[in-house]
Every structure is written in C-alpha cells, then in structure tokens.
Write a structure and sequence with these properties.
Elements (H helix, E strand, L loop, with lengths): L5 H19 L3 H7 L7 E3 L4 E3 L1 H10 L7 E11 L3 E10 L5 E11 L2 E11 L12
Parallel strand pairs: 1-6
Antiparallel strand pairs: 1-2, 3-4, 4-5, 5-6
Helix pairs in contact: 1-2
Protein name: DUF4440 domain-containing protein
Organism: Acetobacter okinawensis
Length: 134
C-alpha cells in the first residue's frame, strides 16, 4: 500500500480546498455534493452525531448562518493507495483561542472523491495530562 501517491495528494488537496470554500460561503448544495450519498456516511460534529447523508444534509439546512468562520492552521493529507485518503486539519474559529480539529475520510468513486466519514471537535482548554485527577 502506498501512503504518498502524488496524484492522490493533488486530488485530495483540491477537494479539501473545495470543502473549505463551500463551508466558508455556506454553500449547502456544494457541501452535500462532497459527501457520499449513502446511509454509511457518518459525521461527528462538535455537538451532534449524524448518520447517513440525509441526516447530514438536514443538519446543514437547519444550522442558522452556517459554520462559524475559521482559519485553517495546519493540514495533513494522507492517501491510502489511490482510492482512499484522510484529510486532517487543525483550525481556529474566528474570535476563539481554542483549536479545532477535523478529520475526513475520502473515497474515490465513479462520481469523484467523496467524504465517507468526518469528525469535528474542539480541544479542551488544557490537555488531560495537566488536569487534576478525580
């Protein structure tokens, strides 16, 4: 298995850029099109767990104002051969000091690259190793 296929890195970089632009502009239809349209698709958000493309689409349509504006701090793209890959990024929401994280598993389908699984979280104020024990 090859974890650094150059063509896959280029394709996933383009897809990740498309996702970030659509997210920033709250283009719901474009975001929907980037997700695999099946019941297997999963998105764990900061405050919700969504199963299937229909739940994910409904969430986006019901979220007032779209996603909070953010700045990407770091992005890592890891191809898994030429048919799958993971895009991991750190971000900071505008006006916040906390770091957010997003991981997306992309699959290469006959209709192009699609997100099969996504996870978004905001880091705790301090690492678990620095918290007092209970």
């Amino acid at each position: 298995m090859q974890l650094d296929d150059a063509q896959t890195i280029v394709a996933l970089t383009h897809c990740s850029d498309q996702y970030e632009h659509a997210l920033a502009e709250n283009r719901v239809e474009a975001l929907d099109a980037l997700f695999w349209q099946g019941p297997q698709t999963v998105r764990y958000g900061v405050g919700e767990n969504l199963y299937g493309a229909e739940e994910i689409a409904a969430f986006r349509r019901n979220r007032t104002g779209g996603s909070p504006a953010r700045t990407v701090l770091r992005r890592t793209i890891t191809p898994i051969g030429t048919h799958a890959g993971v895009v991991s990024l750190e971000f900071r929401r505008i006006g916040s000091t906390r770091t957010g994280r997003q991981m997306q598993t992309w699959i290469n389908t006959p209709d192009g690259w699609k997100i099969l699984a996504a996870h978004v979280s905001i880091m705790a104020e301090q690492p678990e190793t620095e918290r007092p024990t209970l």
